[in-house]
Amino acid sequence: xxxxxxxxxxxxxxxxxxxxxxxxxxxxxxxxxxxxxxxxxxxxxxxxxxxxxxxxxxxxxxxxxxxxxxxxxxxxxxxxxxxxxxxxxxxxxxxxxxxxxxxxxxxxxxxxxxxxxxxxxxxxxxxxxxxxxxxxxxxxxxxxxxxxxxxxxxxxxxxxxxxxxxxxxxxxxxxxxxxxxxxxxxxxxxxxxxxxxxxxxxxxxxxxxxxxxxxxxxxxxxxxxxxxxxxxxxxxxxxxxxxxxxxxxxxxxxxxxxxxxxxxxxxxxxxxxxxxxxxxxxxxxxxxxxxxxxxxxxxxxxxxxxxxxxxxxxxxxxx
Length: 319
What we know:
The protein is α/β, with parallel strands linked by helices. 50% of the residues lie in helices and 15% in strands.
């Protein structure tokens, strides 16, 4: 499978080319084998160095990586017997948000998440994961279905933001997001939310008001995209200012964990989840199982009270 390299990964691309050439050599002597081992060792060291010193903007690039696993990829890995449900029962079906019932570790769960799409055709169909009002109304409908059935909810967040087109505004985009947020705050079942890629603006927050909020290591979560922030603060989108804005937003998983906004940073394989989806899925499954087990032990009154306090406590500051 073709590998897509980001700009800061180009030194790895050169090494990978040399390594692949040696691996494909029909006749490989002792000297070639030693050179292959040396190059593989050099690549591992370089990769560790690159990923230990990532800037905030580089983490945004990883969060947006075209090959990064998306909601349906994780659903296929985590859930058996997944049955997708469609439509908001008011206007239509928004393919930017997917949802349905599946079996997770032999127990039923409701899964809802953004889906950007992998191919060009799928991205256009799903509007690059930017949902319209009917997408959030579909999500809320599925949340209420889970509540009636008494089953936990898993949400996967991966969007640059809600769609801002004229049609979306005419159909009540802000109202749809607000109702989804209010609905999640009052749901009488456990909710685990995971940022698996880019979590941008209210479009991401609308699926993120859970009892536990997790982030994969190379994901990001912020009130606005670095490009939008740069346009406001610096009046342009020059690359150096976009990178400055990314640092200022404190949008990385480590920053948000330190500030108490999220509950856990889920480690990814070196190079990102797209380099080893199996290991990334295994780490995510262990984390979700741990938090769901803890939430199920709480009484309903305690669950709702702690959810309320969790979000009331975000944004505290000292003058």
